[in-house]
């Protein structure tokens, strides 16, 4: 019993220290908060009273009905599995749980987006209206799409655009065209089946990549 109370004491103390890391007076209702999380930047909308609405992938609601466990801070493992299975929700967490120990940028996207910022109460109202389970898509509907719609009225994702641009540069390059032709030719020689049915697709794919580069 004493050990249980001791563990709870240390947990509560560490939680209080984590919460005190963030000065809540810096945030206003409707602010767009931004933190680095795993491979991408994570976004949320501040609702006031130490509450942040954010869209986050989470595998736990798909495999458990334990509401208290689901309500706990989403770990990186839960997040990554949620991304793979396209399971997510728009939920409300404390600033500390949302930030996951990272530094928070406030309204940084105002400098990037050319659209005018909506009124703070309208931003928060939109964020609250969308609470609940959603189908997640890394490219078409992620946390950035959510906050951009709430704050600027347009669901776009700059980091997704940058990701797609980078992938395009890698895939649609002359080096990729060379490698595709070499791999296709090498495979045909290894299998001993150099036929028009095999040669034409290899040439067509390589030529398409070459022209797109």
Automatic annotation (TrEMBL):
Domain LRAT: 32-159
GO molecular function, one term: phosphatidylcholine-retinol O-acyltransferase activity
Pfam family, one: LRAT
Bilayer-spanning residue ranges: 188-212
PROSITE patterns per UniProt: LRAT (PS51934)
Keyword tags: Membrane, Transmembrane, Transmembrane helix
Superkingdom in the source lineage: Eukaryota
GO cellular component: rough endoplasmic reticulum
Alphabetical list of InterPro entries matching this protein: LRAT (IPR042288), LRAT_dom (IPR007053)
Swiss-Prot/TrEMBL GO biological process terms: retinol metabolic process; vitamin A metabolic process
Residue numbers annotated as active site: 143 (acyl-thioester intermediate)
Annotated Gene3D superfamilies: endopeptidase domain like (from Nostoc punctiforme)
PANTHER family associated with the record: LECITHIN RETINOL ACYLTRANSFERASE (PTHR46678), LECITHIN RETINOL ACYLTRANSFERASE-LIKE-RELATED (PTHR46678:SF2)
Protein name: Lecithin retinol acyltransferase-like
């Amino acid at each position: 019993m004493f050990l249980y109370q001791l563990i709870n004491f240390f947990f509560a103390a560490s939680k209080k220290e984590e919460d005190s890391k963030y000065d809540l007076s810096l945030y206003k209702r409707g602010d767009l908060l931004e933190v680095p999380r795993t491979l991408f930047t994570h976004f949320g909308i501040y609702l006031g009273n130490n509450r942040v609405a954010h869209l986050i992938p989470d595998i736990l609601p798909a495999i458990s009905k334990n509401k208290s466990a689901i309500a706990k801070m989403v770990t990186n493992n839960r997040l990554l599995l949620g991304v793979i299975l396209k399971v997510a929700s728009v939920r409300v967490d404390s600033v500390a749980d949302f930030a996951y120990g990272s530094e928070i940028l406030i309204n940084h996207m105002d400098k990037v987006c050319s659209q005018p910022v909506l009124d703070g109460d309208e931003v928060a109202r939109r964020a609250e209206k969308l609470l609940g389970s959603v189908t997640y898509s890394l490219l078409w509907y992620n946390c950035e799409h959510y906050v951009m719609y709430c704050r600027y009225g347009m669901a776009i994702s700059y980091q997704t655009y940058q990701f797609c641009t980078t992938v395009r540069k890698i895939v649609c390059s002359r080096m990729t065209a060379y490698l595709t032709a070499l791999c296709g030719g090498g495979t045909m020689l290894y299998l001993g089946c150099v036929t028009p049915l095999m040669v034409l697709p290899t040439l067509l794919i390589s030529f398409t990549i070459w022209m797109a580069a």
